[in-house]
Amino acid sequence: MRNQQATQLLFELSKSGRRAARFPTADVPDRPLTDLIPAAQLAKSLPPLPEVTEPDVIRHFVNLSTLNMSVDTHFYPLGSCTMKYNPKRHERLAGLPGLVDLHPYQTPAASQGMLQFLYEMQQMLAEIAGLPGVSMQPAAGAQGELTALLVAAQYFRDRGEHRTKVIFPNSAHGTNPASAAIAGFECVQLNQSEGGYVSLPELQSQLNDQTAVFMITNPSTLGLFERRIQTIAKMVHDVGGLVYIDGANMNAILGITRPGDFGGDMMHYNVHKTFTGPHGAGGPGSGPIAVRDFLADYLPGPIVTRTQQPDGTAVYGLATPSKTIGRVRTFFGNVGILLRGYCYLKTLGAEGVKAVSDNAVLNANYLLQKLKHVLPVPQGERCMHEFVASAQKLKTEKGISAMDIAKRLLDYGFHAPTVYFPLVVPEALMMEPTETESKETLDAFAAAIEQIVTEDPERLHEAPFTGPASRPDDLKAGRNPILKWTAKV
Amino acid sequence: MDRSQLKYAKTDEWVALEGDIATVGITDAAVQALTDLVYLALPTVGKQYNAGSPFGEVESVKAASDLYAPVSGEVIAVNTELPNNLDWLSTDAFGKGWIARFKVAPGATLDHLMDAKGYAAYWDTRAH
Amino acid sequence: MSYLFNTPEQQQEMLRVCGVDSIEKLFSDQVPADLRLNRLLEMPPALSELELEAELTALAHKNGGASTRTCFLGGGAYDHFIPAAVDTIATRSEFYTAYTPYQAEASQGTLQAFFEYQTLICELTGMDVSNASLYEGGTSVTEAVSMALRSLHNRRRVVVLGSMHPEYREILVTHLQHLNCELVTIPTPAGTADVSKVKAALNDQTACLVVQQPNFFGCLESAAELMAAAKDAGALGIISFDPLSLGLLQRPGDYGADIAVAEGQSLGTPLQYGGPYLGILTCREALMRKMPGRLIGQTTDRLGKRCFVLNLQAREQHIKRDKATSNICTNQGLLALRATVYMSLLGPQGLREVSELACRKAHYAAEQLAQVAGLELMFAQPFFKEFTVRCKGGVEPILKRAAAAGFDIGPELSRFTWSDGETMSAGLLVAVTEKRTRADIDRLAQALAKSR
Ligand SMILES: Cc1ncc(COP(=O)(O)O)c(C=O)c1O
User: Fold this and answer.
1) CATH top-level class for C70-81+347-449?
2) Which mutation among C294, C321, C329, C331 tests ligand 1's pocket best, with the greatest number of atoms within 8 A of CB?
3) Which atom of ligand 1 lies at the shortest distance from residue A142's CA?
4) CA-to-CA distance for A21 and C347, rounded, in angstroms?
5) Which of the residues C260, C265, C294, C391 could staple to C132 if both were Cys, CB 3.0 to 4.6 A apart?
6) CB burial of residue A426 (10 Å; 0-12, 13-18, 19+)
7) Is-contact A70 A76, C-beta < 8 A?
8) Alpha carbon of residue A422 to chain centroid
9) Whole-angstrom distance, CA of residue A96 vs CA of residue C63
10) CB of A252 closer than 6 A to ligand 1?
């Protein structure tokens, strides 16, 4: 049923002379353009954009959209990404005039509603983290990591301490070492683990007066809550270092335990994950950070302030913390995503927020129990909001890889889990069902995997069979990169 | 090239020394571990490298690895045909798959490198 | 509770399968008791959809949005027109509720759209390669500078102009201060850079020269000469451009930029108080493997059919970790999609019309405002859609008069941190898009002319 014609490339649909948008003629006095712009600066010809009509554009992109799997159409258990339902009220409310059309340089006096929401969001994020200082500038988790590491660097510099090393376990997400390197730190990776948990002797052996920050995802990328996190934090603090909590997995612990209460000094949120952003085909996200009181003065500005007037009313304003590291982006942050997160938290309230984690953890544990007979979970019987299964045994016994299972699941109408991450589990399938899925869906998903592992491995290598493409040639793409369409000559 | 006569670095480069000219490549075992290669960045002829410093890069679809100079010296030739014939790195790693020739810096030695046996043993200790 | 499925009976059944009798047990098995939060979070009470909408509407009413007022605000975010079809596509939930296209077979819609985005951006700019988006315009400048420092690793000097967006410059300072680099800012007291002064600052240690075109004051730099000067010094030339100026002005690729970046907000993204916006980054082919961010590539599948994949991933953090070209993971995909639809709708003619309208109206506005007593143009340079006025009696009275008459202009230059410590206290930006009419401009001039 695919519309082959409309899903050609836009450039192939183009026909000279067609057009969609038209603008009014100028209502100001006509003058030669060269009176306005020096001739040398004027383009000699127009950019060769495609020429299509509005119906062309709509049919093209609507048809393209149908080639995607998405949360609104499919179960999407992509581990570490928290692909939960994205409430539709958020889209309507984020589009309200006054919010969607507010210029970032509008005066604070004419932005009081915006600033009030941002202030309340700051407060809620501080409360959920158990850390009082919040900056909502970062555009995504990775930028949150980098921002917090720059805060740490400035803090140590102010104290006259020369600390150069950032330590993280090998199960860390790639953004952790990448952010540390960009912030100018040396990376130290811990390569051992004790059943998926940090090896304390190994950590101890790396800690010294060079240690700036220990970065840890908790719950970890293996879906485990690091039970000894307080001991770990004490070890790091004892050598004068700071503890960074990668909060990508906050969906497991909302209202259950707080990074600030278990020893974290800094953390980031991924609002697009935990607070149902949504994910926007890759972004935008929002990655606010929360830090301890003694780090709050280093945060990038602006942050939102609230002052009580004598008559009891509140006035909101923007301020820059006194020892700020400086700006990390323009304007205020990914406000549109923060707004959706705010709507979400206001809808849930304290009990609803905790119910999120309750049900996320229940769903993950249930799915783990349903699947462990076919796909062993090396890290055991219990998990938080996600778990990492391994197809290693299937691979050696039958030649069925994690990738084969992932691809075949698409035929069964399920998006694939995250595969081959974390790197420490061979043939990893990282599954995060989220709380917004029913038992029926989890049962059907488990049944599909049970079925898949009985199929002919040779056939599985060729899956999927039903989608718009099957097993793209990555090698060809990599060896001869074609990164744009070019006209045939 | 007789691989038993070559010297090897822990970072998987091999070296064949003739006089003060060192021919350098990477082992086929390392290439296999990287899986299908898509890209090779060659060093610049005339540039000096210290032993252990990165002089090039290989990439596969799913991995990337720096190439480290196994000896100190100046690059005097590179295998310009190799980037367009990456298969040679797996089919003829020690022949057509050579990457660069170095003029070994005066006084530099290969003493820090392993022989074929040592490399084989070292390879086995690594998890793949 | 909202958005949950399982009935109490189902929960019991699931708990039984897990071998526990309560959800609490799932946690107490894993999270040490002394770490538990033994109270409810302090949060506002839960609201129904109806109550939430009432609250948000009340908040929204306290803001002066561009649809209820007349917006002449600029400084890197602009009130351009957004055709309805952009929203129609961007609100398709098959797009906005999907994530990064890791599984190519399940994401051909996203992948093809971003391949088209990359192509459109290359056509727009005349550059060879575009990535699939960065966070926004300011961080894109920093990413471009990092690319230059990585490409020419022996060179540690970065030269920028004082006429660059001061926030872009601040971001650069934040990131460079912990690295061993020198940042040199060339003052631009005349509104644009003096090419000979820039040339004198470029040396064999210079990794790159960054030029914003049109610059923060709205003025046009001698971009071609500056790019040539960078090349002569063996440095990379980086341009930060306004996408909607390219219906009229020469493209960065035409005048020899090595890397061209932009804030892409004007390509179909609403103002929404500063984000999410779109970071555009393009470069010459030779720099392709130094690029940050996702790149979509064309290939064929098992059956030989054309399809699209994430390509050259070995540059990225999930593979190269601490050696990656950037730490970016989640990008600004949905905004890239908006830009893709916007550019498709405009085509070459529409783009030309928007550019020309903004430019003509801005020049009309500049003439009118220059006639207002107490106002004059701050710089005598050619400009595109934005210009800077000097308020001889101070900025405040002008802003007040504008605001009282329903107009927003600015930002005022004094709100920024300038490299040379200047306050630029009397300067005010005025931006004019295709949405402003001659009548708007005349009324603004009248409002400002009223004696105090
Ligand atoms: C564990 C972990 N850390 C960090 C990140 C980076 O976050 P973002 O993609 O929002 O930059 C991710 C997400 O992709 C993640 O899963």
Assistant:
1) alpha beta
2) C329
3) 11
4) 8
5) C294
6) middle
7) yes
8) 16
9) 11
10) no
Is this model's pTM higher than 0.90 or not? Answer: yes
Residue count of chain C: 452
Kindly report the backbone phi and psi dihedral angles of residue C71, in degrees, each rounded to the nearest multiple of 5, phi listed first: -100, 115
C313 touches chain B (CB under 8 A): yes
CATH number of A91-347: 3.40.640.10
Our answer on whether the CB atom of A246 is closer than 6 Å to any ligand 1 atom is: yes
β-sheet bridge partners, residue C376: C390
Contact C47 A438 (CB under 8 A): no
Interface of C with A in 264-303 (CB under 8 A): 270-277, 288, 294-303
Let me know if domain C84-342 sits in CATH 3.40.640.10.
Answer: yes
Task: Say if strands A242-246 and A211-217 run parallel, antiparallel, or are unpaired.
Answer: parallel
Tell me the pLDDT tens digit for each residue of C340-373.
999 999 999 999 999 999 999 999 999 999 999 9
Per DSSP, helices labelled H in A210-258 are: 229-238
> At the fourth CATH level, which superfamily is domain A351-467?
Aspartate Aminotransferase, domain 1 (3.90.1150.10)
- Return the structure tokens found at A333: 């942050």
**Tokens 């340079």 -> residue:** C381
Tokens coding A133: 């200082």
DSSP H/E element including B91: helix B88-91
A288 in ligand 1 pocket by Cβ < 6 Å? no
Residues of chain A contacting residue B62, judged by C-beta atoms under 8 Å apart: 420
Continuous H helices in C29-104: 49-61, 84-90, 93-96
| pLDDT tens across the length of chain A (489 residues) | 889 999 999 999 999 999 999 999 999 999 999 999 999 999 999 999 999 999 999 999 999 999 999 999 999 999 999 999 999 999 999 999 999 999 999 999 999 999 999 999 999 999 999 999 999 999 999 999 999 999 999 999 999 999 999 999 999 999 999 999 999 999 999 999 899 999 999 999 999 999 999 999 999 999 999 999 999 999 999 999 999 999 999 999 999 999 999 999 999 999 999 999 999 999 999 999 999 999 999 999 999 999 999 999 999 999 999 999 999 999 999 999 999 999 999 999 999 999 999 999 999 999 999 999 999 999 989 999 999 999 999 999 999 999 999 999 999 999 999 999 998 899 999 999 999 999 999 999 999 999 999 999 999 999 999 999 999 999 999 999 999 999 887
Contact status of C289 with chain B (Cβ, < 8 Å):
yes
CA within 13 Å, CB half, C110: 32
| Total Cβ atoms within 10 A of residue C405 | 15
Amino acid A152 reads: A
Interface check for C156 against chain B (CB to CB < 8 A): the answer is: no
Token pair in block for residue A240: 């004068």
Residue C158 to residue C167: CA distance in whole angstroms: 17
State if residue A219 touches ligand 1 by the CB under 6 angstroms criterion. no
Q: Are the C-beta atoms of A282 and C109 separated by less than 8 Å?
A: no
Distance B48 CA to ligand 1 centre (A): 39
Least CB–CB distance from A474: residue in C130, C309, C399:
C309
State both tokens at A114: 């915006």
**Nearest one of C112, C325, B122 to A482, comparing CA atoms:** C112
8-state DSSP, A6: T
Strand runs (DSSP E) across A84-194, as ranges?
133-135, 165-169, 186-190, 193-194
The contacts of residue C29 (CB under 8 Å, 6+ apart) are: A382, C20
Give the H/E segment covering residue C295.
Answer: strand C295-300
Beta bridge partners of C183: C158
**What does the domain layout of chain C look like in residue ranges?**
70-81+347-449, 84-342
Note whether B36 contacts C: Cβ–Cβ < 8 A.
Answer: no
Residue B68, Cα to own-chain centre: how many angstroms?
A: 7
At C383, list the tokens: 């400009």
